[in-house]
Amino acid sequence: MRLLKPTLALALALSVPAVAAAQTTNCAARDKVIARLETGYGEKFAGGGLRNASSIFEVWKSEEKGTWTILMTTPDGRSCVMASGTNWREALPGEVEGVAG
């Protein structure tokens, strides 16, 4: 039991470089990323917005396949996939219960 904390700390420390490396491989020139989303997954632009002066976030989705991607693009034209998944669901129209509109 006394080895549990050191073992978990070691596992966490070893996983950080792998996560950082994986994140860098999900970035490319915007036109290449968009082409992949459109042709490879059938995704289309669904919405997005300006985060700050250094990045734009977008949601791309495929109604047919149910896939979705959250993309971040920087002013230099580089886009990075921040998250992606399946089983996309549209928000229901109307007011959310308990929230004034």
Question: Could you walk me through the main structural features you see in this protein, from its secondary elements to its overall organization?
Answer:
The structure is a single chain. With 101 residues, this protein is an alpha+beta fold. It has a domain at 27-85. It is 33% helix and 33% strand. The chain contains two helices and five strands; from the N terminus they run H-E-H-E-E-E-E. It has helices at 4-24, 30-41, and strands at residues 27-29, 44-52, 55-61, 68-73, 78-85. It has a five-stranded antiparallel β-sheet. The longest helix has 21 residues, at 4-24. It is flat, with a radius of gyration of 18 Å. The termini are far apart. Mean pLDDT is 80; it is low at 18-23.
Distance between the termini: 52 Å
> For the residues shown, what is the average pLDDT?
80
- Note the run of SSEs as H and E: HEHEEEE
Shape: flat
Q: Helix amount, in percent?
A: 25-40%
How many strands, what sense, and barrel or not for the largest sheet?
5 strands, antiparallel
Q: Please state the structural category.
A: alpha+beta
Uncertain runs are 18-23
Residue share in β-strands: 25-35%
Total of DSSP H or I helical runs spanning 4+ residues: 2
Biggest sheet strand line-up: 1-5-4-3-2
Give the helices and strands, then pairings.
Layout: H1 4-24, E1 27-29, H2 30-41, E2 44-52, E3 55-61, E4 68-73, E5 78-85
Antiparallel strand pairs: 1-5, 2-3, 3-4, 4-5
